[in-house]
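Usage example:
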Amino acid sequence: MLHNDNIQEEVLRTLQSIDGIKRAKTNPFLYTRLKEKMQQENSRWEKIFSFISRPLVAFAILILVMVINTWAVWGTATQDSNTAENNITVLSEIASEYNQVASTGNYEYEMINQ
Amino acid sequence: MTLTAEMELIEQLKQKDENAFKLIVDQWKDLVYNTVLGIVQNETEAEDLTQDVFIKVFENIRSFKGESKLSTWLYRIATTTALDFLRSKKRKKRFGFIFSLSGNEEKEDGQIPDFHHPGVSLDNKERAKLLFKAIARLPENQKAAYTLHKLEGLSYREISEILNTSVAAVESLMSRANGNLRRQLEEYYRNQ
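Running the assembly step on the lines above writes:
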């Protein structure tokens, strides 16, 4: 095990080990590789665009969008009618409940008067 | 390169001039590579990221308003790209670890691989390896500030422009980075 003073000296020497470090040099063929990478990226996009612009693919995408739209519109309409039906059910339940309460009230009143 | 020549080059690059792009790459490739290498500590990844930095430069040169020097802008893109890369690498490792728990992938041991910077003198090689391992464990901002100061020899003012912060904040980052490195190294030598 190192003595405390030695530890401090080692730490200091290690911290100073990259003082005056030289700049790392890149590969001399970097530009060639860079151009290649850029061309690959461009050709990847070109491939995607050319695939999308094929008549069959474009038509399929169009159909898919239309199906999704129809489904969304139909879904919203069904949901609206369900909500309306639910509202009517709730209202009729409340109405029938009140009616029953009212009729029960009358019955009790009649029984008392008898 | 004079400021006028630099502005002229930028204007040419905005017109997508290939010669201007080649000149920019030739002029600043080592600056970008050394910055990225200091942060990611892997030569293959650093070369790949250097290419990515220049692709970003080519694609986003129109957003460069000339309010700072081109080198400051390049340092900023290089630092951000390298830190983003480390973040995504960490995410992948975490994901890999989850996989390893379910027995699908090899186990992640969290070890930082040895890195030898090519610019370090031979007699300092082993010590520098230790120091780079400690630098790799620093928080992002401290790592960026320390790397720019030590490897690129930038002043605190230049670093503050690159990191979009104040000089006082850079001073604080450097002081915390030095403190953290000292602690890590002390622990290492105490266990020797």
